[in-house]
Amino acid sequence: MLNLLAAAGDRPVFEDGDRVVSAAVMSAMIRRCAAGLRARGIGPRDGVLFQVGVHPEAFAGILAAFTVGARVACVRADQVAEVLPGACAVLIDEAALAELAGHPDDGAGLVAAGRPGDYARVIYTSGSTGTPKGCCQTYAAMTAGWAAHPNRWPPAVRALAARLDRYLVFGSLTSQVMLEYGVLTLAAGGTLVAAHPPAFPEAFAKHRATASVITVGRLHQLVRDQRARPADLSTLRALMVSGSPLDPGRLAEAIDVLGPVIFHGYGQTETGMISMVTPDEFPAALDTVGRPAVRVEVRDGEVYARTPAQASSYWNDPAGSAEVFLDGWVRTRDLGTLGADGYLRLTGRARDVIFVHAELVHAGPIERLLAAHPDVAEAYVVARPDDETGEAPHAFVVPAAGRRPDPRELRELVTGPGRPRTVTVIDRVPVAPSGKPDKDALRRLGQKTPL
């Protein structure tokens, strides 16, 4: 990435409102930030924690920390107390970042000081299925990644890269997906564009964005908003959908409303991208997450992945590491099948389970059954303690446009121990700061239509 920026000269690489930063200016900013970090005594193996927004200085500061060989983590405000002073001892907030960006260039140049076996990043998971975990990626693994190297791009990524002229970046740079596709954008000759109000869908028109990342829940909301109040999405060429499997029917609806712009990716913080399906593969691949771009095995119904850039452990969690990182493979804890056509299909999460009378019930199949009903746009199932069964499933559904789901009818669709104890109709699913459905919030939600 340092070499790419050094060679790009006056090419715009970051746009923040009226401010346009060229590659040359970004390189100079990285040099100053790196000098500031070295002046603080920060070098290889030192932990640096960033709590910053989306702007050129934030991007430069993070690259500068990699340049000096530090161990870098980026977190949301609600995660700082959990991370300090463990994985990273030095906090770089907006005030500290401003000092780094204003530090004089020490003339040392931009030479990557990271050592292959050292941890380069501690990337925190969203916590959507439990406590956030710090995924440790070494400098060797980060170097082996595909994003900055066009000659390593899988076919699906190559198709995506051609559409990344103006990549809309929002929220923060804490996300593995947001940063990975940001690096891909720069390697493809595009520009990172910081999102400012308004939010989706008007942001695409305001910023003339051609691409962005979107979670499944927000995609559903975007489709509904476009049906009700269409915005100008004429510049949009790629929406990378991530975070959870996308129901084939809802995917078809999104394509119908938004056009051939959906890239449905599958990956994890632990692995990076595993597979991706492109617009050219629809409708044949609607029920898949594409052909794997890395090594994948399905063992007893569970997906295992092996990627050059994967994490190697969880920070300070040997028990969790031993469960997930196995002989060079990552146990995704997702259920799936790998078909003779080469496509990977996800069927649920091994972790998203409910124990009913000690019988294991997976939430995923129940959610897909409910979501297939024409009156339902989204369906989510959570476990709650139950005096009779130990745990019981409870379902929450978002109505399809113009529809009124009948909770009793929906409940009767499910047979056996997976039948929801209650079905609740909600206007919108609550989302966690990561943008994923917040199942803990659903568990706390009062029953509007108890059965």
Automatic annotation (TrEMBL):
Pathway: Lipid metabolism; fatty acid beta-oxidation. Its EC number is 6.2.1.3. Residues 429-451 are annotated as: Disordered. GO terms for cellular component: membrane. The keyword tRNA processing does not apply. GO terms for molecular function: long-chain fatty acid-CoA ligase activity. Residues 8-314 form the AMP-dependent synthetase/ligase domain. CDD domains: AFD_class_I. It holds the Pfam family AMP-binding_C. Residues 366-436 form the AMP-binding enzyme C-terminal domain. It is an enzyme of class 6 (ligase). InterPro entries: AMP-bd_C, AMP-bd_C_sf, AMP-binding_CS, AMP-dep_synth/lig_dom, ANL_N_sf, ATP-dep_AMP-bd_enzyme. The keyword Membrane applies. Keywords: Ligase, Membrane. It is a peripheral membrane protein. It is found in: Membrane. This is Long-chain-fatty-acid--CoA ligase. It comes from Pseudosporangium ferrugineum. The lineage of its organism: Bacteria, Bacillati, Actinomycetota, Actinomycetes, Micromonosporales.
